[in-house]
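WARN no homologs supplied; continuing
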Amino acid sequence: MKTIIAALSLLLLVGNAALAYPPAVGILGKAKSCMSCHVSNGPWTDEQKTIIDILDKDTGKSFKQPDGTFLIQARQGETKTVLTVLGRVKEDESPAPYRNGWVYIDPVEQEKGAASSSKFAPNWEVNLSLGCRLIGDQQQGFEGAKISVAPMSLQPLQNAKDAQIQLQVMLTKGESIKGKPKEGMIGSYFQRKVYLKVIN
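OK structure emitted
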């Protein structure tokens, strides 16, 4: 009985945490970006000192292209795990963010407005396409940087097609006031294009 109660408590805790941040983008609301609820008023505006990267978990290689977009390729049915690395470089002298929030979202699916726990590209199986994480992780190649690192597994299913999605990011510090999300928390908003390609 105690085991069942503990399991239910954990489920409720995880569920509440998942809905807490980001609250609308990519989940149940029709918000198109983090800016629907928050403001980009943080000090972390220098792109050269901002880290937004997506790595292959197995090789550590970045999917970043010369134009700043990302290209993730996977064979049909293949599960690929990537690492979302967010934060600020070691040399940054401004106070570090405390928490990073992110969401991968297909703008076309978001435009449809259907209530769903994920608005990722159709027929691409994915876990952890959104979330928030405290600064303090370590990753090879980013020694000394103030970053968060989070894994995400994706898999193109039978009818999956090439797609273009967005990675929306907020570097934040402080806590939003309940009912007044534009107050209390400071944050800097960034957006990146991510291309998904099915390899035959």
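The two ends are 50 Å apart (CA to CA).
OK
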